[in-house]
Amino acid sequence: MMTKIGLPVIAINFKTYPQATGERAVALATTCEKVAKEHAVSIVVAPQIPDLFRVAEAVDIPVFSQHMDAGDPGRFTGHVLGETLVENGVVGTLLNHSENRMLLADVDASVRKADDLGLYTIVCTNNPVVSVAAASIKPSAVAVEPPELIGSGISVSQAQPEIITDTVNMIRDVNKDVAILCGAGISTGTDVKAAIDLGSQGVLLASAVAKSDKPEDVLLGLIEPIIN
Ligand code: G3P
After folding, report:
1. What is the value of pTM for the model shown?
2. 170, burial (CB in 10 Å: exposed 0-12, middle 13-18, buried 19+)
3. 44 lines ligand 1 (CB under 6 A)
4. Sheet with 42-46, side-by-side order of all strands
5. Average pLDDT value for the chain
6. Domains assigned to the chain
7. Residues with catalytic annotation?
């Protein structure tokens, strides 16, 4: 059965930040789970692949991989196998992140394979035109992230709002159903509100939460505009 994710969603990419690695990945995911449950908001976590099993065992919120390949079980050394993600409690995957780009044909193959396995797919893109290409592949979601703002602390929704509005308008011409997210520099509730006001259905972020000494406080700020 295809995984469904509540919208608006706050998706936290742990990247390879040391503060979100190993047992610290479990601690951060547990904080995300606490905030999600106490405030009835949709929060997704994407730890590093070697940490997926321990995180999925520890929390009851959606756990995503940061990548998945399209290969089948067998002769695919070093590939990230979808079947193994499922067996380890993973319910979705990021694809084509700016820090781990894929060929378009491979994005398509991974999305089709994820569909077969019931995994939710968030395809990352760098601009509105690439977002349209990604939406044509019919993933579960597209997340537009201008690379130059990633990790900058300068929010796409405040610094480049046209990236979001253009992405939403152009995607809706080709795909009415795909969820549209945005990311890069999202750090505060004000950034989240601006993103949602511009037509985004959620945000994908990393450093503001993963590098914080007080991730719960940051999360509470982020969700503020989406709780009643
Ligand atoms: O995947 C989310 C990401 O690329 C944005 O990173 O640190 O700007 O929130 P950050």
Report:
1. 0.98
2. middle
3. no
4. 42-46, 9-13, 202-205, 179-183, 141-144, 120-125, 92-95, 64-65
5. 97
6. 9-227 (3.20.20.70)
7. 97, 145
Residue the block writes with tokens 């999925």: 56
CB atoms within 10 A of CB 98: 15
Mean pLDDT of 146-169: 97
Cβ–ligand 1 contact at 147 (below 6 Å): no
Spatial separation of the C-alpha atoms in residues 58 and 29, rounded to whole Å: 8
State the pLDDT confidence band at 228, using cuts at 50, 70 and 90: low
- What string of DSSP letters covers 177-222? SSEEEEESS--SHHHHHHHHHTT-SEEEE-HHHHT-S-HHHHHHHH
Query: Which structure tokens are listed for 167?
Result: 């992405």
Residue whose tokens read 């919120």? 61
User: In 3-state terms, what secondary structure has residue 124?
Assistant: strand
**Cα–Cα nearest to 10, from 45, 60, 39, 34:** 45
Find tokens 């993973």 and name the residue: 90
Counting beta carbons within 10 angstroms of the beta carbon of residue 60, is it exposed (0 to 12), middle (13 to 18) or buried (19 or more)? exposed
201-222 tens-digit pLDDT: 999 999 999 999 999 999 999 9
Is pLDDT above 80 for 226?
Answer: yes
Å from CA of 49 to ligand 1 middle = 17
Nearest to 43 by CA among 56, 34, 53: 34
46 lines ligand 1 (CB under 6 A): no
